[in-house]
Amino acid sequence: MDELTWALEEVVGAALVLDEELRVVAHTPSAAEALGVAPPVGVSAPRLLCGHGEERPVAEALAAGRAVTAEVLRPTEAGSNRAVHVRASPFDAGGKRAWLVVFDAFREPEGAAELGIVTRDPAMQQLLRDVRKVARSNASVLVRGETGSGKELIARAIHTASDRRDGPFRAINCAALPPNLLESELFGHARGAFTGAVADAPGHFRLADGGTLFLDEVAELPLEVQAKLLRVLQDKKVIPVGGREPLGVDVRVVSATHRALRTEVEAGRFRADLLYRLRVIPLYLPPLRERPGDVEALAWHFLEEHEATRAVRRITDGALNALTVYDWPGNVRELQNTIEYAVVMGSGPVLTEADLPPEVRGEEPGASKVSAPAQPVNPSLPPEARRLVNALERSGGHMGRAAKSLGMSRTTLWRKLKRHGLHPDDDTEAGAEG
Fold first, then answer.
1. What is the mean pLDDT of the chain?
2. 154 lies in some domain
3. What is the pLDDT of residues 119-176, one digit of tens each?
């Protein structure tokens, strides 16, 4: 496979090049994966793509010399068929007509969007199983996770999976308001309770009656508000600011924090009795850097949200590798913003590494990314070998991440390295994570 073919792979992905007789003269590596078979040079493209079926839109358009966009059915190993989206366009090749056939949107299946959460990661899938168990009770839940990791999504998943799903879901960030306003937002207030209180306000607890209340960043609650929250959780009654009569509420509380509440208790900043009320069932949400397999699935999920702005059909290996090895200090929220940046700053159906923010590409000082080695890759290596070595270097020698960025298993990567005489260590062969 020469450099031009690898360049075509990087730019457009799965593709065939046809001569004027509509025979395959070249194909990119991923074209074989899209078609389910490696197309031999010289094979008839209409027969390859359409077989002998009654409907042959691609074959008819190619024979008529027209550009075409269509779907063709390709057999799978399971014996069924799957649809492959095809775009074929003619171009001038030195006075002769040639064709470029591109297979759009061919990629690995995304993680299942279970309870509104897209994931492939085993730890996250276990967390979702725990969410379903938790949802069967009304016990208070404390979700621990870094900022931007998706704690509110877990709270919503608990609500969605519970018998309260038809009731309201309310969320409040305890760090976003000063103590006097926070108390009013949580418990409500009576008219005239303070300057500007021109009418009664129910507060989040009463608005969430019959449903779920999510208290984000609960460690930021002032001590005086903590005492009132504890009383509400114990008595299931709320007294609005400036009110006299307690009002009954039926609310399931899910709280979240990025801090260790036990440490806050030891420091005197959080009440121990409230901790035990909130932390009946603790759940841990791993940061994105601990589940690199979710990066691609989430990237495609966010790209679909912006499809009206830019319809991306492929992420290049370079871009996917950059996304995978980046440390994501801002977690899923940062990835979401990164994809939006890439959609706006780039163009066309292929998302390339150049579309990504500088910090994700590793071009800003202090960027959370594995740095490349000082010595360049040997230019005499075959293109595939250089591609493998580049992926390993970008992942800091991490075989698992390098393999994922290349779209292959770790075993396949090891075998390819061996075939090119690039002998990995025995520990790497055995599957060491590095």
1. 84
2. yes
3. 989 999 999 999 999 999 999 999 999 999 999 999 999 999 999 999 999 999 999 9
Indicate whether 280 and 294 sit together in one domain. Answer: no
Report the domain count for the chain: 3
Neighbours of 341 (CB within 10 A): 14
Q: Which of 58, 87, 104 is the last residue of a domain?
A: 104
What value does the mean pLDDT take over residues 296-322?
91
361 and 279 part of one domain: no
At 248-261, the pLDDT tens digits run: 999 999 999 999 99
Structure pTM? 0.69
> Taken in order 405, 410, 411, 414, is the CA torsion positive or negative?
positive
